[in-house]
Design goal:
Helix content of chain B: 25-40%
Order of helices and strands of chain B: HHEEHEEEEEE
Shape of chain B: elongated
Oligomer: heterodimer
Number of strands of chain A: 42
Strand content of chain B: 25-35%
Radius of gyration of chain B: 23 Å
Distance between the termini of chain A: 26 Å
Number of helices of chain B: 3
Number of helices of chain A: 13
Distance between the termini of chain B: 67 Å
CATH topology of the domain at 75-223 and 237-307 and 643-670 in chain A: Immunoglobulin-like
Number of strands of chain B: 8
CATH architecture of the domain at 75-223 and 237-307 and 643-670 in chain A: Sandwich
Strand content of chain A: 25-35%
CATH class of the domain at 75-223 and 237-307 and 643-670 in chain A: Mainly Beta
Strand order of the largest sheet of chain B: 1-2-3-4-7-8-6-5
Structural class of chain A: alpha+beta
């Protein structure tokens, strides 16, 4: 190049001074500079090769040094270290309501930036109304927004690198919390507040904190419902029974090879409002501290992980629970009231009519383990309680179904023993296709037969994703039948249970462990055998009361009527009327004497939202009308619903644009008592769902240093890196030596020249 | 560098000269170090194979996995021979970066040689599998397992694929073999492409 204009360095001394300088400089640049440029290129290419791994949170199996929890990413052969969530639940029970604050601490153990998505359950009647995100020392308060708008705000913040949190309802009892831009080894704390009514049944008050979302069975889209276009063209669309299957499917860990994840602590301050008798935690060891006769502090003892529901029950010291309770709250110019009214039990008036009862038992894979035993024991108990005048049938289902008898049969000794043997031989396996057996049970051959009371008892864990399909079926085909739900296992789907019982005008009983079978089934049978309280009505004398539930349920023995109302004034009386069997019953409460309660407005609004859903399921109002009502209620009362979400956005940008963000679902524990293989091993549909339905796949953690992953069939087989940098190093080394030699030669020459 | 050029007059030479000398020495040292590192990678690859061969022979005799040296975190699992070109290599358990420095690795989750499915071995293109470019369709590959059983495969194809789109089905029908290395062979930087030699069992 330019050096050609100069003569060789050996003739330097014969040149003019300026030319000699220029040549010296150029020569220096060539002999020393060029190797340096080459070196720079070399290091740059090395750095480039590593840059991807350094910036991305994805790792390959070879890069993992110690036992970590890995999730398959959409990038074949690359894995992501799963984010973790620790949960603290702080609950204050004051009289009829529970105010809960759930603190979720998200930890990102990886070297990259992560968006963590955590699916968690909340009580199905909880009113979720506040969200706070804590970043460092700043607290960001979340806002309620229409679902789409909230999602857009969140996505914008996520893309621009701001920390953000989005709480969405997927089912009334299943929520997801997405937290964007959690930095490497960083923690983000999210607090969610909700209110819920305390449950009362008989003399027992109870509070349930669901802690884990059980893996749901999502029926394949093969059983589609078709919707033909209204224009009569004959063309239409088919609907997936579970349109949001990927949103409710999280990776689930095999408890045999994984240490449990997602630690949980729970504190309950129980202010019952009356002197407390027995206080009991049914599935967790607890420490109980007594403050005074009416107040106790309950906290979880030992290490606990989110793998089963927390259930706390308490009874009054006096044998009987108060028959009535009335509470009030004033928010702005509105007054709200919450009333519990337990009708008296009339012992002598037994229901005389015999019963026609259909038992439906779930023996799908999700029931594997202790759940199946609980269900079998419960059904066995139920069969033993039948009277010779009764008629009955047993239907079992997984992804297939068997009806023991063609029709209901007389409950004679022969038929009962056949049925008990049939139940005793049931084993849990397969998927959960609940629709067909439910339809079979609802199929009433003698719809006008008033000689029998028709009852359906459904024993299941409700681990399905197509709840709405089932609810629609119950609403449409109920007839004279009544549906009684028995929720089995450590983490049943209580939303399905409660709503199905409400639409089926029956009750919901939950059985969380084998030692609850006897007591709870006895209570259920007391309800089945006692007269029903029907034709209930509730009237506030002051007028202008907005009462919910809009359709008052039938009540069974020991159950209270729970009503919430928005009132124009806290005066006058509340009168409740009904029929106990064939006997009229009436009770009147003075509204002005109501005790002060908390969070009643939220509970009222939450119950109004349920009303809209129920009325739409029953076909009383259109879906659009229901949506309109729900949206208005949710926005006015700042509640998370099917149509609204809470979103919090940090104003500071924490992730710079050149760093990639990877989404990862927080892995969940398998609910306690579940058998991993019966759920995931043999159940092809559910497995396929988990492995193909989401971009994050099932992975296992082993206690050894070696991460083990499941490779789904048809997945691309990644190949390792098979080039050494030996040649690069040798070339770089030679270039360096050359540069140094050049420098040496140059300094010697210039030394001589001077 | 600019510090050397900028002073037009050479009055500061007394300061500059030692600095230039020091730079020279540092560069020479770094160069030697880098160069010897490159040599070491090759030396290690050759040396390890000798030790591995010994461990493997012992492993066949005892039937137990034998570590080639006490601190090794892998062990030999198979001998791969190419009779036509007279090459052979001892393959190791796993295809981690550490294992591949010493020999071809049997990739995790792929089938065992001689079993149904596809066995996958990977090695570096510039050391143990440098000869893979000489392998031709129809060549025989002999694999001796740790339990002493030997299987003969016949090369059925050669292809170039992306590392994450290998198209390899480890549960494929029949008894298959895939040898993988980086491609192109003469490149100096690592890339996403892989060279595959596929073979089927010769009955």
């Amino acid at each position: 190049m330019k050096t050609e204009t100069c003569t060789l360095p050996s003739s330097l001394h014969t040149m003019p001074h300026w030319l000699r300088r220029t040549c010296q400089t150029l020569w220096l640049i060539n002999i020393v500079g060029l190797p340096f440029v080459a070196l720079a290129v070399f290091f740059f290419s090395l750095a480039n090769a590593h840059a991807e791994t350094a910036r991305s949170p994805l790792v390959t199996l070879d890069e993992v040094k110690s036992g970590t929890l890995l999730l398959k990413s959409s990038d074949a052969g690359r894995y992501i270290e799963a984010p973790r969530v620790a949960t603290d639940v702080d609950i204050v029970v004051s009289g009829p309501t529970a105010r809960a604050r759930i603190t979720q601490i998200f930890t990102n153990p990886s070297n990259g930036w992560v968006e963590a998505v955590y699916a968690y359950p909340l009580p199905e009647d909880s009113a979720v109304h506040a969200l706070k995100m804590v970043v460092g020392k700043r607290v960001i308060i979340g806002d309620i927004k229409e679902k789409k708008e909230a999602k857009a705000i969140y996505e914008t913040a996520k893309a621009s690198g701001q920390k953000a949190s989005l709480v969405e309802q997927q089912r009334p009892n299943l929520f997801t919390n997405s937290v964007a831009n959690i930095g490497p080894h960083e923690q983000v704390v999210v607090q969610i507040d909700y209110q819920e009514p305390v449950r009362l049944s008989g003399d027992e008050f109870s509070l349930r904190v669901p802690l884990v979302v059980a893996p749901r069975y999502n029926p394949a889209p093969v059983t589609q419902t078709a919707d033909l276009a209204a224009d009569g063209s004959g063309w239409g669309t088919t609907a997936d029974p579970v349109p949001d299957r990927e949103k409710i499917t999280s990776p689930v860990l095999d408890p045999r090879v994984n240490a449990p994840v997602n630690p949980v602590s729970i504190k309950v301050r129980l202010q019952a409002g009356f002197a407390l008798g027995e206080v009991k935690s049914h599935h967790h060891p607890v420490n109980i501290e007594t403050v005074d006769a009416q107040t106790q502090l309950i906290s979880l003892a030992g290490d606990n992980h989110a793998d089963r529901d927390f259930e706390l029950t308490w009874k009054p010291q006096s044998a009987k629970a108060p028959a009535v309770g009335l509470f009030r709250e004033t928010i702005g110019s509105n007054d709200y009231a919450l009333a519990y009214i337990t009708p008296p039990v009339i012992e002598q008036k037994q229901e005389e009519r015999p019963r026609e009862i259909v038992f439906v038992i779930d023996n799908s894979g999700s029931m594997g383990g202790t759940s199946m035993n609980q269900a079998k024991a419960s059904l066995d108990y139920a069969l033993s309680r039948l009277k010779p005048a009764d008629r009955f049938n047993v239907i079992r289902f997984d992804d297939t179904m068997t009806s023991l008898f063609q029709d209901t049969v007389t409950a004679d000794r022969n038929n009962i023993s056949t049925a008990r043997e049939f139940v005793g031989n049931l084993e849990a396996a397969g998927g959960t296709e609940m629709l067909a057996p439910l339809e079979a049970a609802l199929d009433d051959r003698r719809p006008n037969d008033q000689a029998f009371v028709r009852q359906i008892v459904l024993l299941t864990d409700g681990a399905i994703g197509n709840e709405q399909q089932l609810l629609d079926t119950i609403a449409a085909k109920l007839g004279r039948s009544r549906v009684f739900m028995v929720g089995i296992g450590s983490a049943p789907n209580n939303y399905l249970m409660n709503r199905a019982a409400e639409l089926g005008r029956g009750t919901f009983t939950s059985i969380g462990s084998t030692d609850q079978v006897d007591e709870r089934m006895r209570n259920l049978f007391a309800k089945l055998e006692s007269p029903v309280i029907t034709n209930l009505s509730a009237t506030f004398s002051s007028g202008n009361a907005d009462v919910t539930p809009a359709i008052l349920p039938d009540l069974y023995r020991g159950e209270p009527l729970v009503i919430a109302a928005k009132l124009s004034s806290l005066s006058g009386t509340l009168t409740v009327k009904g029929m106990i069997g064939s006997q009229p019953w009436e009770v009147t409460l003075p509204v002005a004497k109501a005790a002060k309660g908390e969070g009643l407005s939220k509970l009222w609004a939450r119950r109004k939202i349920s009303d809209a859903e129920v009325e739409s399921t029953l076909g009383k109002i259109s879906r659009d009308e229901a949506d309109k009502r729900i949206l208005k209620l949710a926005l006015e009362n700042s509640l998370v619903s099917r149509l609204t979400s809470l979103v919090a956005v940090d104003k500071n940008v924490s992730r710079s644009q050149d760093k990639p963000l990877t989404r990862a679902d927080v892995p969940l524990n398998l609910p306690a008592g579940w058998d991993f293989d019966t759920v995931f091993g043999e159940q092809t549909t559910r497995k396929a769902d988990l492995e193909n339905g989401s971009d994050v796949h099932l992975a296992k953690l082993v206690h050894s240093n070696k991460p083990v992953t499941i490779q789904p069939a048809g997945e691309q087989f990644p190949l390792p890196q098979t080039a050494t940098d030996a040649e690069l190093r040798m070339i770089a080394g030679l270039l360096m030596l050359l540069a140094s030699a050049g420098l040496f030669f140059f300094t010697r020459k210039t030394g001589k020249a001077s | 560098m600019s510090a050397i050029i900028v002073p037009a007059s050479w009055k500061g030479r007394a300061v500059i000269r030692p600095a230039v000398r020091a730079a020279m020495a540092v560069m020479a040292l770094a160069g030697l170090l880098l160069f010897s590192q490159g040599i070491w990678i090759h030396a290690k690859a050759i040396l390890a194979q000798v030790l591995l061969d010994r461990a493997f022979t012992q492993s066949i005799q005892t039937g137990e996995p034998v570590k080639p040296w006490s601190w090794a975190d892998t062990w030999p699992v198979a001998r791969i021979e190419f009779p036509r070109i007279g090459e052979s290599a001892i393959a190791l358990h796993g295809a981690s970066g550490q294992a591949l420095a010493f020999g071809p690795g049997h990739v995790d989750h792929s089938a065992e040689a001689g079993e149904n499915g596809t066995a996958v071995y990977a090695a570096h293109r510039d050391t143990h599998f440098a000869f893979l470019k000489q392998v031709q369709i129809g060549d025989t590959i002999r694999i001796t397992r740790r339990d002493g059983k030997a299987f003969t495969y016949r090369v059925s194809g050669k292809s170039v694929v992306r590392w994450d789109q290998s198209g390899i089905d480890t549960n494929a029908r029949g008894k298959n073999l895939v040898l993988a290395t980086c491609w192109p062979f003469n490149a100096t930087t690592s890339g996403p492409m892989r060279y595959l030699v596929t073979a089927e069992i010769a009955e």
